[in-house]
Design a protein that fits this description.
Serine Threonine Protein Phosphatase 5, Tetratricopeptide repeat; 2 domains; four-stranded antiparallel beta sheet; two-stranded parallel sheet
Amino acid sequence: MRSPFAESPEFLRLLRRDPGADLTRIALEIARDEYPELDAEQYLQKIDDLAVRVRDRCAAGAKLRQVLGQINWVLYVEEGYRGNVEDYGDPRNSYLNEVIDRRTGIPITLSVLYRALAERLGLEMAGVNLPAHFMLRAGRDESTVFVDPFHSGTLLDRQGCERRISKVVGQSVALSDHQLAPCGLPQVVSRMLLNLKAIYFQRHDFMAALPVQRRLAVVNPGDPQEQRDLGMICLQVDRPGDAVEPLEAYLRAMPDADDADAVRSLLRAARREVARWN
């Protein structure tokens, strides 16, 4: 049987937990769900071109903060990238091709772009999966610096991160070492997909949510709720045959869940529909 992700080879590498899986390519594969004609190589070339411009301004042996400063100059001053505070919930903010075309996005997609640039310049950066906001970090131990790509690449220390998150959530926040730690590629991809899922659910656009949820369910195989949501979306878009397996998986994992009876009812309805077709 052909994999539903046969056209997403980098995403399949992620599912295999291949440490060499490329986040930028995965982000563009996710975008291709919404934009089937997307030419990923075109956008990768645009990132390469930006990296060349930054590299040309960095002296040999430039220190971390100097390189970050040049990335910020190219992205935010010359190219005019910015966080989309006016229409944060626009789904285009969550697709890397649109972020590059429109030069605006949300924290995680701007972070994907920023990290892609840094990698091409030999900098190792990691995502920081903070509550209500996503950032990057570089360096180690006392030299660690946090970068906020949504706010023009502002460089922060731990206290600066706490002030930023406190402002976002509207109350004082003390961040733990765990919250400030580098997060893995599956976490970054999952957060990208969760943002899209929330947007499409709010809009009741279940057809657009379906490919997002398919990816979420396999990126988070240990989360039965993602299976449940996949089954429910399949029912919303009149695909009862595709709903049966994920609903069954949810009930196997969560037979005593508060919503188990409701899910069983949906499962019976899905099976009835499938039986009518056969």
